Structure formats: structure tokens, C-alpha cells
Amino acid sequence: xxxxxxxxxxxxxxxxxxxxxxxxxxxxxxxxxxxxxxxxxxxxxxxxxxxxxxxxxxxxxxxxxxxxxxxxxxxxxxxxxxxxxxxxxxxxxxxxxxxxxxxxxxxxxxxxxxxxxxxxxxxxxxxxxxxxxxxxxxxxxxxxxxxxxxxxxxxxxxxxxxxxxxxxxxxxxxxxxxxxxxxxxxxxxxxxxxxxxxxxxxxxxxxxxxxxxxxxxxxxxxxxxxxxxxxxxxxxxxxxxxxxxxxxxxxxxxxxxxxxxxxxxxxxxxxxxxxxxxxxx
Length: 281
Description:
Elements: H1 7-30, H2 37-50, E1 54-55, E2 68-71, E3 74-76, E4 90-99, E5 102-111, H3 117-135, H4 143-156, E6 160-161, E7 167-169, E8 176-180, E9 197-200, E10 203-205, E11 211-213, E12 220-222, E13 228-230, E14 233-238, E15 241-244
Antiparallel strand pairs: 1-4, 2-4, 3-12, 4-5, 6-10, 7-8, 7-9, 9-14, 10-13, 11-12, 14-15
Helix pairs in contact: 1-2, 3-4
């Protein structure tokens, strides 16, 4: 069932989103060569709890981490471990918080030290894809219009959109209806209404869109071993457009895209396809 949140409920989600966004900013600053993914996970757990939240992912269907930590060809759901980050890695942090019973979900791909030109461009394209997806949000559009916008842009840049993993609704549960694919035809699926809240999360690969899951039954990687990037925000549908709920700023900003999502530029429009399985966060 799809739920539309009231003004009071959206304020609760803003509070949760601010915790998630503040913690993610501090985690980004902690990412450097020589740090382990478990170091970042432990720091995240400490920060979320200190800010009045609980880690949304810890124990979710048995997941062992407070955040998902994925490196290079790992797309999502990487389990924190003793793996040491190295200069040139792309490190993906997927983080969620629960505050007073309300969830928020966010992700960023962080360059470790000096990364290649290929990796830098992948980050820019994926970041821009998220901005394009969010800018598409408004009452009256179909959820597939978001995926069409992402796929059109990403494929025009020569990259592939992951189809086996999708975004999702969010609120008093980490995963709610509807699914939010990053591909598809315009004009199909659920029509957006004010009060709906979506976790929008493009996952973009340098090579094939195909993926596989490792023996740990969690970590999803590119099928061909190519690099992947992932960015995500929790976004509310407003009467006039959208509001990003996972921002550090306490002031609600309708139809505002933060500068951090505007670093990558590029063309638009391409094609379509189908599939789906919700990402953990």
C-alpha cells in the first residue's frame, strides 16, 4: 500500500533525513587510503546513535552492518569488513537512519585519494542522473517517468543503468511501495501524489547493466567487473514539485537541488527497458 504523509509526518521524516545527511557528510571526510570499511561502519553507528537515531540497516533481514560499504565493482550491499581502502578506489556508502519511528535513506560514492579520469566521470554522470531524477518529481507524473529520465541521460553518456535493483517508497518502514526503477517507458505505473516519499537511487555501471550476487548472499557486483557508482536521496512529492528530505539544512527547500548534485554535466535522452528488486537502502 502506498501512503501519503501528512505535514506532521513529513517533518518527522525531515528530522530523520537530517540525521542521515549529517552523518554521511562526516563519513565522507573520514574516507581515505588505509581506512577499513569496518572503521567507517563503526564510526557511522556511533554518529547515528549520538544524533538520536538508530542504524536502519543493522539486522535488516540479518544484515551485519550499520551501513552498506561497497568498493569499485561492488554496486550495493557490501558488508563492512577488514578490507582496506586504497588510493583510486570508489567507495560507496549507503546509509539509513530511523528517528522516532521514521526512516530516511541516502547514498554517496566517494573517491578515495586520487581516482582515474574514468572513475571521476562515472561519479559525475551518476550524481547528475540523481539530480535529473529528482527534478522530474512532481504530482501527476508516473513513477516510470523518473526511470525514463535516468536511463535516457545515463545511456546517452555511454554507461549502463542497473535494472535488477531499484529505489522504493519509504516512511515508517525502510521499504514501502512503490518500487522506483531507474529505467523504463514514460507514462506507466503509479501516478505521483503530494505526500508520497521516495528513495531515488541511480546505480550506474561503466560496462554491462547485468549484475551478480557474491557468495556472502549480500554483495551485488557488476557481472563484468566494471566500475559502478551509486547516489541516493529521500525525496517527498510536494503540491508544487519535490523536496529533498536528506539534507543537513533544517529549512525545508521546495524544488531545490543542492550544489553537491550539480557538479556533473552532460546531454539527455535515449531509450528504455524492464526488471526489479529493491536495494536494501
